[in-house]
């Protein structure tokens, strides 16, 4: 039983046999991210309950969970809207990441080999290669304004929990999935590369938690919750690792968490939960850079030196020196963020939870069925699903101003989805 459970979760920690990842191009591609999507929500519930229980044991008066309803829904909405945007582009025939990689491999590869004959070389080459590519993309996403415009959305939440892993910018995959992977396409075929790329992304889910402290010797090699917390604490221009922290230690961007704190997010915190505003926010900020738009796109926001120091891999990690987390901080801070200290009424809170959950479910149905739907049916449904998520996220920011609009969009969604499902089943 225990073995069945651990093997079921193994892909979430990149624990897959090299032989299972030696995939030929004509073999069925595993879909790790889609498969484990429901587990994200299970783990989020476990984390919320565990935090409440642990803080209750410390102090019954200030027991709390680090999940704040609007913040959590905003994270899920942002992840969902990224998938919606990618499906929208796919339906228009734009699929940059897999197309660029496959094109380079088909036309410019340096070697042709059978992955079944070289499973270990393929595994270790892609395990390290994909992770190194992620490090340099992620570092670039913090150092260059154009890439930060897509990536800053991931850093816009000021709570830190597993839901933060789902908080993603809509345009980020346009740059993250291929830019630094081009050298790999000269050697490794697309099928095993895609599997490793998904596992690399999947691994990063579990490091978004405050529940896990230091992990001993693993801290020297692996990206861990301790290392990644520093990445989400402003200014956060450190610990860019995906799976292995060795890249940060090697290239001089490693910072150990010396004092536990629970302040996270952007140096200039976002003032809205709106998924549109969060996605457009840095483009607006970039207007203030005194250069042409081309110059702004290539201008750097972090000027860290690029160097490589292998001896740094063996330097000791300093021990934790303190803990400055005030009790009950997360809830109070999340409310202060928007200057709203008046609690929402029970009815409004229930509406937010139900309408948000229905919006997420409807979007998932649209994402599952949208790839094969007629464009004339797909586009209106996409607009309704995204419109509902956007209006809900504005409702979190200003309930009194956006309630009527939100109710209208919710009714539209409740009418459109059954019609879509009925038409789908008839067809
Ligand atoms: Zn980042």
Automatic annotation (TrEMBL):
Membrane spanning residue stretches: 350-372, 378-396, 403-421
Superkingdom in the source lineage: Eukaryota
One cellular-component annotation, GO: endoplasmic reticulum
Gene Ontology biological-process annotations: lipid biosynthetic process; membrane lipid metabolic process
Descriptive protein name: Fatty acid hydroxylase domain-containing protein
Alphabetized Pfam families for the sequence: FA_hydroxylase
Keyword Transferase: no
Topology in the lipid bilayer: Multi-pass membrane protein
Domain (Fatty acid hydroxylase) ranges: 126-253
Family designation: Belongs to the sterol desaturase family.
């Amino acid at each position: 039983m225990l073995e069945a459970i651990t093997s079921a979760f193994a892909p979430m920690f990149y624990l897959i046999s090299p032989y299972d990842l030696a995939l030929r191009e004509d073999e069925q591609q595993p879909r790790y991210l889609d498969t484990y999507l429901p587990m994200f929500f299970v783990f989020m519930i476990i984390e919320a309950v565990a935090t409440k229980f642990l803080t209750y044991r410390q102090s019954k008066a200030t027991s709390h969970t680090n999940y704040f309803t609007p913040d959590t829904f905003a994270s899920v909405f942002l992840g969902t809207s990224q998938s919606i945007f990618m499906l929208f582009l796919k339906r228009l025939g734009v699929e940059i990441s897999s197309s660029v990689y496959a094109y380079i491999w088909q036309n410019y590869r340096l070697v042709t080999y059978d992955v079944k004959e070289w499973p270990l070389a393929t595994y270790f080459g892609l395990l390290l290669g994909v992770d190194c590519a992620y490090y340099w993309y992620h570092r670039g996403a913090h150092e260059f304004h154009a890439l930060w415009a897509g990536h800053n959305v991931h850093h816009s939440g000021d709570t830190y929990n597993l839901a933060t892993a789902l908080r993603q910018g809509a345009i980020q995959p346009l740059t993250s999935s291929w830019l630094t992977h081009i050298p790999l396409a000269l050697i490794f075929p697309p099928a095993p590369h895609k599997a490793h790329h998904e596992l690399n992304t999947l691994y990063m889910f579990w490091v978004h938690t405050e529940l896990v402290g230091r992990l001993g010797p693993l801290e020297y090699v692996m990206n861990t919750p301790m290392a990644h917390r520093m990445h989400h604490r402003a200014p956060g221009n450190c610990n860019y690792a995906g799976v292995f922290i060795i890249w940060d230690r090697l290239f001089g961007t490693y910072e150990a968490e010396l004092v536990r704190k629970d302040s996270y997010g952007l140096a200039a915190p976002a003032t809205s939960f709106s998924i549109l505003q969060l996605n457009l926010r840095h483009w607006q900020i970039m207007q203030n850079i005194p250069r042409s738009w081309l110059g702004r796109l290539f201008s750097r926001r972090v000027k860290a030196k690029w160097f490589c120091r292998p001896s740094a891999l063996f330097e000791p990690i300093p021990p934790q020196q303190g803990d400055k987390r005030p009790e009950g901080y997360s809830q109070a801070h999340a409310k202060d963020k928007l200057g709203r200290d008046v609690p929402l009424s029970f009815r409004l809170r229930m509406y937010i939870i139900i309408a948000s959950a229905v919006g997420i479910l409807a979007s998932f149905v649209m994402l599952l069925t949208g790839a094969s739907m007629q464009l004339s049916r797909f586009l209106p449904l996409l607009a309704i699903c995204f419109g509902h998520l956007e209006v809900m996220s504005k409702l979190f920011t200003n309930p009194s101003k956006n309630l009527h609009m939100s109710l209208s969009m919710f009714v539209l969604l409740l009418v459109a989805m059954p019609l879509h499902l009925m038409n789908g089943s008839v067809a």
